[in-house]
Specification:
The complex is a heterotrimer of chains A (291), B (802) and C (178). Chain B is an alpha+beta fold. Chain B contains 21 helices and 29 strands. Chain B folds into three domains: 200 residues, Aldehyde Oxidoreductase, domain 3 (Alpha-Beta Complex); 332 residues, 2-Layer Sandwich (Aldehyde Oxidoreductase, domain 4), CATH 3.30.365; 171 residues, Aldehyde oxidase/xanthine dehydrogenase, molybdopterin binding domain (Aldehyde Oxidoreductase, domain 4), CATH 3.30.365.10. Helix content of chain B is 28%, strand content 24%. A seven-stranded mixed beta sheet of chain B has the order 3-5-1-12-9-10-11. A six-stranded mixed beta sheet of chain B has the order 7-15-14-13-8-29, sandwiched between helices. Chain C folds into two domains: 76 residues, Beta-grasp domain (Ubiquitin-like (UB roll)); 72 residues, DNA polymerase, domain 1. Chain C is 30% helix and 14% strand. The chains are: A alpha+beta (291), B alpha+beta (802), C alpha+beta (178).
């Protein structure tokens, strides 16, 4: 289980990185390496060029603007998880990150790297989706923004072009009256999700659900939003019937075939359970969720 | 240090080394210039090899040699069948490198030797093996035995390797007389030991001395040495096999031979360079042996009061593509099926079935977890059918304290010896677990929980384990003349069981020294080369007693010599604090001085020798320096061969909460009452049991080796083969009973496998109990999983209540 | 068959390109030339000879190879040596004092019988040490909290219970907490 040989590049700037990227047909970006290197050790991925972006200083920072959290592509998951300033404006991020593998993995793994890897069962794509976040991608011809709902195409496949590099992740801050929850079901602590859900809810002062954002991972070929479930909640007071209805609606999004951990039917069962539990938690945390 | 250390919680005496990075596992042995091995493995379960071309791989820079079956001379033959048996009518073993046919995905086909493992792996992809279309295969043992099933081996019809029937008492009469019959069909799935250190072999050939040295992460270095010497046609004394620190074994490392164990020494000799093979995790799943799949159909014939008169068990045992270890696993299962229960009449019939997947050899438990699952699930069902309490049904069948030794006439254990339970207090164990659970309190809590919509359940399971089997082991004890330290050898290896500590305790007690001053050297044929191996929970019993006997003999030599030196009667002497004292006086002589005096030298080159000269000679004054029949020094060797196995036992229980929404479980309490005879060191015993329970949890709920219908492994990695983390393993509450074994001087029984055996039935029983209000189906297939619990809740699903 | 008595001309190394790396390992500065694909675990073990760091799965699940990179736990099997260029690495060999006295966590492992075969132990030690240091002991030290801290490291021998005990007792000693 040793990785194949590759050409190694360690650019100092984004410009240099995108130019190396442009010159190589099958390059891979190395940030934390926690998703890439295992696939190389199994020789599932055999990139001919590795572009190590760890020496591009500008990518190692995160900042919080009025409206969004901007996370550079080299920022480690553990930094964001432990950041009180991030927690203050978007508490769901910490709750989600606590479900990502284990501490030593999060110490090396980056937020952007997990999104770029786009494992269908990974937690962070669901976080980006539920938060209406986006990534900034650079190539030799400039930068573009890719919204979460366009980014994830398929298991381990994004809409990123071969010559592009994710340089930033942008996550809008959460309204301070919002309620949130991330729940997942795994076989062991820290495993990829058999099913996971991220929920953000806002309510009017009289307890009517005004904003409903729900995303899920582990249930198909990519992380997805669950618009049918969101729709059930919108404009309603969330009693147990409504929540149950939403969790039933969520089941329809389960498209994963039977695998070693779950059949499709069981995955639906699990999803509906964690969805209704997550909605309840988000509701209880929202300022007006309990009227 | 005069207190007895036997039975004390003595801290382990080699931990400091392991804690500071000083462990020496095979890959840590410095071998300058070593070459590295990687294997080309079969991508198909059954296929013909049409052609092999290694030229491209050989031309890869850094590659030294590439071998196929055509390049390995006399090694190109079937490897040995280790344990033949009359009922094993169609034994098949594999070749080091496949010739003409491959029989399972992962079978070794070619071997690359290169300057490092990275390049070796590159080159495996350049070896061009052309295969036929993969042949049809069937890995389901129930289907594989049918007449029209595809054959793993062309000349083995129905894929049956062995067929065995064991009968005790008169089962037909028992079944004719009985008032009630309980039938269960249970299945235990395939698993693997998954030691944290994968297997590893390194070899160096010294062309000057003609000595071949092999470092092998094996449980059986002496046996490996014997085999290598005969296969390579070398003198045994020219082959030294060392098992250095070994990172867990659990049975997987006892097989001889794995292809690499022959091919690595072969390459080292052919290439005149040290060669290493460090198995990686994928290879451990593909090429190292596995265990567990058995399907049992058990029928109990009982009276209405729950007393079981007879048992019939018909089971199939999956042996994988080859059967190098014979039928040991199935044979153990066939004799463990009656558990701790009297059941005087039985008929057990089994077939060992070839399947085109990784071969099977014993894994911690070795047939017992399977048998235990079958009988304990059957006992639960018997209780339910008769409307009796699960504990009470067991009580009515337990062998009584006064019934030992309890023989099961005509049954033969895996060692070919009689099945005679030597001692135990089974009812006491049951009482203890009932008390620890606080049964009444539990029932109240269960009811309360149910009112809140929570599902609590209680599960239990007994187990028995035949431990400490022969043939024999030895113990060698030598008191060092300069330091007075005691060196001890035996023919075993340790993979973390604490031999160095418990054997030290045994010796310390005899010689009156501190256990830290007793140094065990094992796992090295250069140090001691009589014995068998570490397996079957036998180390403490077989080596422990041999070492005890050798230490006693050494003690007698010390006493006799000191008696001469101190001119005092042996009866007036005591050994303590590393000295021999004359009781009630301040006259004493140090052990080092006694050892020195026992080696009558001419030169006083150290303090011990100078001290020794202050005393009378160690020999009797009327004898020469070495008395009649005496050897120099204090050095003894003894051997112990048990008459038959010593039977350990215990009972486990768990209180489990099941969340029907996720079909997940939360183990509130896990309780374990066990008896392994006299305990040498309770801390180490507990470590063995707790570790065993964790592995049992794996088998109960997490770990399953999965294959698709074409024999391809589906989860050959640690992401999908779920070894539990700390978050998945319960805290274990332990209670000890010590019923000495009458079979050996120390009164000990083995404990290595005990913890693993009953966990699956405990968990299944608890989940079933918890979900009874929802109408759960029988949980007769392990490992369980949230998904399988969900499947078992069909009634609740149909009613839409989960 | 008579074997040639002339020593064959075997290659000494592969044709992988080499990159210079500089690191501080256990307080010592080192410079080496390595292939970019050499995993940090192999580099530490075979290039530096620090074999206390073990390799158990090479895909990040078992945690045997855990070391501390720049103050934080990391899988050395999921890190290329070239990535660690310029970093400070701590391995299990750094824990005990120069005079041989054990780190409180090592001491607690010994007292609690928290190891058997010892193969997973260095990974546990480095992971726990980094998490205790990172939080200065302000971490959930309940039984459940410690089990979460330990998740990410597999042990096949102990059943974890004595490791939990060892962490509790070490944390008490290190941070005088209850």
């Amino acid at each position: 289980m040793k990785p194949p040989i590759f050409e190694y590049f360690r650019p100092k700037s984004i410009e240099e990185a995108v130019s190396v990227r442009a010159d190589h047909d099958y390059s891979a970006i190395l940030a934390g390496g926690q998703s890439l290197i295992p696939t190389m050790n199994f020789r599932i991925a055999n990139p001919t060029a590795i572009i190590d972006i760890s020496r591009i200083d500008s990518l190692a920072e995160y900042r919080i603007d009025d409206s969004q959290i901007v996370i550079g592509a080299m920022v480690r998951q553990r930094d964001i998880e432990l950041s009180d300033s991030v927690y203050k404006v978007h508490p769901l991020i910490r709750e989600t990150l606590e479900h990502v593998a284990h501490v030593p993995i999060r110490c090396r793994g980056t937020v952007a790297g997990s999104l770029a890897h786009a494992d269908a069962a990974a937690e962070l794509p669901a976080l980006l989706l539920v938060s209406n976040g986006c990534v900034v991608a650079h190539s030799a011809s400039g930068a573009r923004i890719i919204d979460a709902n366009e980014l994830f195409q398929f298991h381990m496949t994004t809409s990123l072009a071969d010559n592009e590099i994710i340089t930033e992740v942008r996550i809008p801050v959460m309204h301070d009256d919002a309620g949130w929850a991330f729940l997942e079901f795994t076989r062991r602590h820290g495993d990829y999700a058999v099913a996971g859900v991220a929920v953000i809810l806002r309510f009017s002062e009289d307890g009517i659900c005004e904003e409903s954002s729900i995303a899920s991972c582990g249930i198909g070929s990519r992380a997805v939003r669950l618009p049918e479930a969101e729709a059930v909640l919108l404009g309603k007071k969330l009693d147990s019937n409504i929540i149950n209805e939403a969790s039933q609606a969520g089941k329809e999004y389960v498209s994963a075939a039977d695998d070693t951990h779950a059949t499709t039917e069981f995955r639906q069962h699990v999803l509906s359970t964690i969805l209704s539990r997550a909605i309840n938690i988000a509701k209880s945390r929202a300022r007006y969720g309990s009227e | 240090m005069s207190t007895r250390t036997f039975g004390e919680r003595v801290q382990r005496n080699n931990d400091e080394r392991l804690l500071t990075g000083g462990g020496r596992y095979v890959d840590d042995i410095p071998l300058p210039g070593a070459l590295h091995v990687a294997f080309v493995r079969s991508p198909y379960a059954r296929a013909k090899i049409l052609s092999m071309d290694t030229s491209l791989a050989k031309s890869r820079p850094g590659v030294v040699e590439v071998y196929t079956c055509n390049d390995i001379g006399a090694l190109d033959t079937e490897m040995p069948l280790l344990i033949p048996h009359p009922s094993l009518h169609s034994p098949k073993t594999q070749r080091p490198l496949a010739r003409d046919d491959v029989f399972y995905v992962g079978q070794t086909v070619a071997m690359v030797v290169a300057v490092d493992r990275y390049v070796a792996e590159d080159a495996t992809r350049l070896v061009d093996i052309e295969y036929s279309e993969p042949q049809e295969c069937n890995i389901e043992i129930e289907e594989a035995i049918s007449d029209d099933a595809p054959r793993v081996h062309d000349d083995v019809p129905n894929n049956v390797a062995a067929h065995c029937i064991q009968v005790s008492g008169d089962p037909e009469e028992a079944f004719a007389k009985a008032e009630h019959f309980t039938k269960v069909k249970v299945r235990v799935d395939r698993s693997t030991a998954a030691p944290m250190e994968c297997r590893a072999v390194a070899a160096r050939f010294d062309s000057v001395s003609g000595e071949l040295t092999i470092w092998d992460g094996t449980q059986a270095p002496i046996s490996v040495r014997g085999g290598i010497a005969s296969i390579f046609n070398l003198d045994e004394d020219k082959v030294r096999v060392i098992a250095p620190d070994v990172g867990g074994g659990f049975g997987q490392k006892v097989l001889l031979f794995y292809p690499d164990e022959l091919l690595v020494p072969f390459a080292a000799m052919s290439l005149s360079r040290p060669v290493k093979y460090i198995e990686d995790r994928t290879e451990n799943f593909l090429g190292s042996t596995q265990e567990r799949t058995q399907i049992h159909e058990v029928e109990l014939a009982a009276n209405k009061d729950g007393v079981v008169l007879g048992l019939k068990d018909n089971f199939l045992h999956d042996t994988g593509a080859f059967i190098p270890y014979g039928i040991a696993v199935a044979q153990v299962a066939s004799t463990a099926i009656m558990g701790p229960y009297r059941i005087p009449n039985s008929r057990v019939e089994y077939k060992a079935v070839y399947t085109p997947i990784v071969p099977v050899t014993p894994y911690r438990g070795c047939g017992r977890p399977h048998a235990c699952f079958a009988i304990e699930r059957a006992m639960d069902q018997l209780a339910e059918e008769l409307g009796l309490d699960r504990f009470e049904v067991r009580r009515r069948n337990l062998i009584g304290d006064d019934e030992f030794p309890y023989e099961r006439p005509n049954l033969l254990f895996a060692d070919g010896l009689a099945v005679i339970y030597d001692s135990g207090q089974y009812s006491k164990a049951l009482d203890m677990i009932i008390e620890s659970i606080n049964l009444e309190d539990f029932k109240a809590k269960q009811k309360l929980a149910l009112d809140e919509g929570r599902y609590l359940g209680l599960g239990l399971s007994f187990y028995v384990e035949a431990t400490g089997i022969g043939p024999y082991e030895g113990g060698h004890v030598k008191v060092h003349p300069i330091t007075g330290k005691v060196y001890v050898n035996t023919g075993l290896t340790t993979q973390g069981q604490g031999h160095e500590t418990v054997f030290a305790q045994i010796v310390a007690d005899q010689l009156g020294v501190s256990p830290e001053d007793v140094i065990l050297v094992e796992g090295d044929t250069g140090a001691f080369d009589w014995g068998v191996a570490t397996y079957a929970s036998r180390a403490a019993v077989v080596s422990g007693n041999a070492i005890h006997m050798a230490a006693e003999k050494a003690r007698n030599i010390v006493l006799e010599a000191a008696s001469n030196m101190l001119e005092a009667s042996v009866d007036d002497l005591e050994l303590q604090d590393g000295k021999v004292n004359v009781k009630g006086s301040d006259v004493s002589v140090g052990l080092a001085a006694v050892a020195t005096a026992c080696n009558p030298l001419r030169y006083a080159f150290n303090e011990a020798a100078q001290a020794a000269t202050q005393f009378a000679p160690a020999a009797r004054s009327d004898e020469p320096a070495l008395g009649d029949g005496r050897a120099p020094g204090i050095e003894t060797t003894e051997y112990y061969a048990p008459p038959h196995a010593a039977w350990a036992y215990g009972v486990h229980a768990a209180i489990v909460e099941v969340d029907p929404g996720l079909c997940s479980i939360d183990i509130n309490r896990y309780i374990c009452v066990h008896d392994c005879g006299n305990m040498i060191n309770p801390t180490i015993v507990e470590g063995q049991v707790m570790g065993g329970v964790a592995q049992g949890m794996g088998g109960a709920f997490y770990e399953r080796c999965e294959f698709d219908s074409e024999g391809n492994p589906r989860n050959a990695n640690f992401m999908d083969f779920l070894v539990p983390y700390a978050t998945e393993v319960p805290k274990v509450e332990l209670h000890h009973i010590e019923t000495p074994s009458p079979l050996n001087p120390l009164g000990v029984k083995g404990v290595g496998e005990a913890g693993t055996i009953p966990v699956a039935p405990v968990i299944a029983s608890a989940i079933e109990d918890a979900l009874k209000p929802l109408g759960v189906e029988k949980l007769h297939h392990v490992p369980l999983s949230p998904n399988s619990i969900y499947e078992a809740l069909s009634v609740a699903r149909e009613k839409n209540i989960i | 068959m008579k074997k040639s008595q002339i020593r064959p001309d075997y290659p000494e190394r592969s044709d992988d390109p080499l990159h210079e790396v500089n690191m501080e390992v256990n307080g010592e500065l080192i410079t080496r030339n390595v292939s970019p694909r050499i995993l940090l675990a192999d580099f530490i073990r075979h290039h530096l000879g620090l074999t206390g760091t073990h390799v158990g799965c090479e895909h990040g699940v078992c945690g045997c190879c855990t070391v501390i990179i720049d103050g934080r736990a990391a899988r050395s099997c999921l890190t290329f040596a070239v990535q660690a260029d310029g970093s400070k690495i701590r391995t299990v060999e750094s824990l005990a004092q120069d005079d041989g006295s054990l780190h409180p966590l090592q001491e607690a492992f010994k007292e609690s019988h928290a190891l058997q075969c010892g193969f997973c132990t260095p990974g546990f030690l480095m992971s726990i040490v980094s998490q205790l240091e990172e939080t200065e002991g302000e971490i959930d030290l309940s039984e459940d909290g410690i089990r979460v801290m330990l998740s990410g490291n597999l042990c096949r021998c102990t059943g974890y219970q004595n490791i939990v005990k060892a962490v509790q007792s070490a944390a008490k000693r290190m941070y005088k907490t209850n």
